[in-house]
Amino acid sequence: MAYEVPLPAPRTLPEGVLLHREHPADLEVVLQVPNAERSDFETYIIDMEDPAHRAWLDGLKNSRMLKDMLAWAKHVAYMPHTGHYQEMPDLDKPNQMMMLFNQARQQASRERSIERMFIMRKRRVPPVSRLRRALSGGRVRP
After folding, report:
1. What is the C-alpha separation between 115 and 118, in angstroms, rounded?
2. In this structure, are strands 85-87 and 28-34 parallel, antiparallel, or unpaired?
3. What range does the domain containing 128 cover?
4. 55 and 24 in one domain?
5. What average pLDDT does the chain have?
6. Same domain for 56 and 28
7. Number of domains composing the chain
8. Is residue 68 part of a domain?
9. What is the tens place of the pLDDT at every residue in 97-106?
10. Residues 17 and 80 in one domain
C-alpha cells in the first residue's frame, strides 16, 4: 500500500536543496534534500496541482521568483534560509566536446565505409565484354 510522504517543514531544510523538472511544462517538481554529510538525498515530489504543495512552495522565501525560475529552468539550486536560487546546468545534456567527439566518430565511420567500397571495387572482377571474348578466342553469343 502506498502512502504520501509529507513535504519537510521549510525551517527544517538544510542550507541548500535542488529542484528538478523533466520539462518546464511538467506539473511535478522533484525536490532533493541532502543529508547532513551530503552523501545522500531524500527525494520528494511537489505536485503543482495539489493546493497543499502549492501552499508549501508559497511558504518559502522568495517563492514567487523561484516559481518563475521553475517555469523555464529544468534544474535549480535553492537556498531556503536566504531565498537565493540559481539555475544549474543540465549534466545529461551533451556538451560541445561530446558533440564534436560524436561527429568525429560518425565521420570516421563514413570514411571507413567509403574505403571499403573502393576496396571491394578493386577486388571485383569486371565482366568480360563481347569484344574481349572475341579477341581472346572465346565463344561470343549473338
Report:
1. 5
2. unpaired
3. 98-135
4. yes
5. 84
6. yes
7. 2
8. yes
9. 878 888 888 8
10. yes
> 82 and 102 share a domain?
no
Q: Are residues 26 and 71 in the same domain?
A: yes
What does DSSP assign to residue 46?
Answer: E
Q: Are 7 and 59 in contact (CB under 8 A)?
A: no
What pLDDT, in 10s, does the model give residues 5-37?
788 888 888 888 999 988 877 888 889 998 878
CA atoms within 13 A on the CB side of 62: 13
Whether 53 maps to a domain, the answer reads yes
pLDDT in tens, 116-131: 888 888 888 777 788 8
Same domain, 23 and 55: yes
- Report d(CA 106, CA 87) in Å as an integer: 33
Looking at the structure, tell me whether residues 80 and 107 fall in a common domain.
no
Q: Give the mean pLDDT of 56-60.
A: 89
Beta strands in the chain (DSSP E): 17-20, 28-34, 41-47, 75-78, 85-87
Q: Are 34 and 28 in contact (CB under 8 A)?
A: no
Distance CA 40, CA 66 (A): 24
Q: Residue 35 burial by CB count (10 A; 0-12/13-18/19+): exposed, middle or buried?
A: exposed
HSE, side-chain direction, 13 A CA sphere, residue 128: 12
- Which sign, positive or negative, has the C-alpha torsion 130, 133, 135, 139? negative
